């Protein structure tokens, strides 16, 4: 699916406020409501817009601690990777898991109640995952910037068709 500037603007507006009515969105992107809704539905059907969610205050929710965890595997066989990724997928406190290049194989972002809960998570859930060679944790003591709105692609940047 080829996206034009209006599609990109629709995506940015919805990333900023997913609760916009179709009329408000149409006004912001300078379209009438019907073509705007058709474009949103096309973006959803193509998988560019995968869903809508609420942004929740992590501290107020009771998970004030953010930990970045670097994992190195003992082996890089298909089975070891599959096992690790299957285990990580079901641990709720792990919010993000990235496959990395460099000295670590994976980078996890964990949100948790406190240091004691993190210790229990590592001892009972993460250490239980077969094939881990090392675990290194870094604790965030503040957040300077958090956004879920993607930057505008540079003009002429090829986009992968969906």
UniProtKB/TrEMBL annotation:
The UniProt record lists the keyword Transcription: yes
Pfam families (UniProt xref): AsnC_trans_reg (PF01037), HTH_24 (PF13412)
Domain HTH asnC-type intervals: 3-64
SUPFAM superfamilies per UniProt: Dimeric alpha+beta barrel, Winged helix' DNA-binding domain
Protein origin, superkingdom: Bacteria
Keywords assigned: DNA-binding, Transcription, Transcription regulation
UniProt cross-references to PANTHER family, sorted A to Z: LEUCINE-RESPONSIVE REGULATORY PROTEIN, TRANSCRIPTIONAL REGULATOR AZLB
The protein, known as: Lrp/AsnC family transcriptional regulator
């Amino acid at each position: 699916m080829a996206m034009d500037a209006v599609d990109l603007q629709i995506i940015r507006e919805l990333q900023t406020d997913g609760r916009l009515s179709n009329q408000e969105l149409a006004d912001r992107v300078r379209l009438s409501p019907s073509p705007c809704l058709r474009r949103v539905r096309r973006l959803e059907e193509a998988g560019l817009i995968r869903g809508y969610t609420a942004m929740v205050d992590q501290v107020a929710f009771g998970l004030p601690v953010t930990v970045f965890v670097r994992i190195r595997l003992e082996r890089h066989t298909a089975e070891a990777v599959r096992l690790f990724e299957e285990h990580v997928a079901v641990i709720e406190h792990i919010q993000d898991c990235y496959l990395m290049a460099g000295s670590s194989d994976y980078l996890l972002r964990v949100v948790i109640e406190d240091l004691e809960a993190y210790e229990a998570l590592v001892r009972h859930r993460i250490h239980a995952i077969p094939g881990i060679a090392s675990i290194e944790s870094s604790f965030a003591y503040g957040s300077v910037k958090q956004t879920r709105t993607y930057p505008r692609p540079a003009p002429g940047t090829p986009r992968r068709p969906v």
